[in-house]
What we know:
The complex is a heterodimer.
Chain A: E1 4-10, E2 13-28, E3 31-35, E4 42-46, E5 49-55, E6 60-65, E7 68-73, E8 76-81, E9 84-85, H1 92-107, H2 114-136
Parallel strand pairs in A: 1-8
Antiparallel strand pairs in A: 1-2, 2-3, 2-5, 4-7, 5-6, 6-9, 7-8
Chain B: H1 2-59, E1 76-82, H2 92-106, E2 111-117, H3 119-125, E3 131-135, H4 144-159, E4 165-175, E5 178-187, H5 193-202, E6 208-210, H6 213-289
Parallel strand pairs in B: 1-2, 1-4, 2-3
Antiparallel strand pairs in B: 4-5
Helix pairs in contact in B: 1-5, 1-6, 2-3, 4-6
Amino acid sequence: MAAFKLNLFTPKGNVVKGLECSDITVPTVRGEINILPDHTHILTELGTGVLTAKTSDGAVRHFSVTAGLCRVMQDTVTVLSFTSEKPEQIDIERAKAAKAKAASRLAGESNLSDVELIKFRRKLERAEMRLRLGNLY
Amino acid sequence: MANIKGLKIRIKSTKGTFKITKAMKLVSAAKLNKAQMKILGMRPYATELEQTVRTVSALNKDYSSVYFKENPANKQSIVLVISSDKGLCGSYNSAVTKATRRLAKEKTDENLKFFFIGKKTRDLVHKEVNAGKIYKFAKADATFEEVRKVADELSTLFTTGEVGKVYVLYNSFQSAIAFETKLKQLLPLVVTDEEKEQLAAKFPYDYKYEPSAGSILDTLVPEVFVTSIYTAVLDAVASEHGARMSAMENASKNCKEMIRKLSLKMNKLRQAKITTELAEVVSGAESLNG
């Protein structure tokens, strides 16, 4: 089966390098895109979400990604993400607490500045994404 | 003989120094390990990001952003000099200081202003060059957020047109025992025509952009700037620990050698003293036997 290589780099180090994949789903700012072998060259901005990769041997792996970029070139897909976690690294309790906190701050929206509003919305987004990823594991 | 006592004191103090340098070496080795992991983890991300931005800007000739715009009329430049807060690290700080002085002498066509991270080089050169701000971090190795603040400040100075160029001068980490002092121009991001052609030749096909090349570059370019500075800081921290480790290794070696030499001298003197005393006793006894 045709396969391509997945690289996932973050400032804290390489999460995966040269992982043989046959199918990956990447969250972008415009929604999820699915990449199969022989995909056209594409460069896109990453959104916050879960990156799902099906490796050539049939295993499915999940990674969280936040802001960054995704580049598809011939037989390599390079994902640069500001942070990335594997499901087993996620602390569900902490994510739940973070979600509750962000949600409660957003509930009283009137006294938040624009910057704070964006900050808490992003926090909520990340906490929800973590919970999704944590529950997948 | 008083000399033996003097030697004993010197040996004792050298042994004390030896203990300190050895401990410092071990501490630096542990810190180097951590710093090395950080910089080596950062590099693929940083290079990939910068390469992508360079490629995309080469492929999209009509894209222009304030970050790419060269402004030859603006002679004001900022050099961010990264040295350390602490000494005892061999040629680490002197290498940066030397490079700073040389830069100040050679780049006379630009109006250089020096900003600093780490006070060692600043303390040495601030009277000779046009010294600006010094940035301080809570801990020796800065977090990404702290560096982002510095980067934001510098990029605002650039985007408002107050300065024409931003450089960074730092020691780039090569291995535990080697570093290289590098000067890198961060702003404006220059992709020369030659490089553009090379990149365009390498990528005969263009990407499909989602949402668009312009908006991707708009978000990535500031990110490249922050990442470059952060990489420079990590590079500098790793080189500092490496330099300190080898400096302390040398110091420990020298201490050992010194202790060996002093002990030898002291033993010689002690032996000579015993021999003289023996000779005196023997000759005294001889004269009694007469």
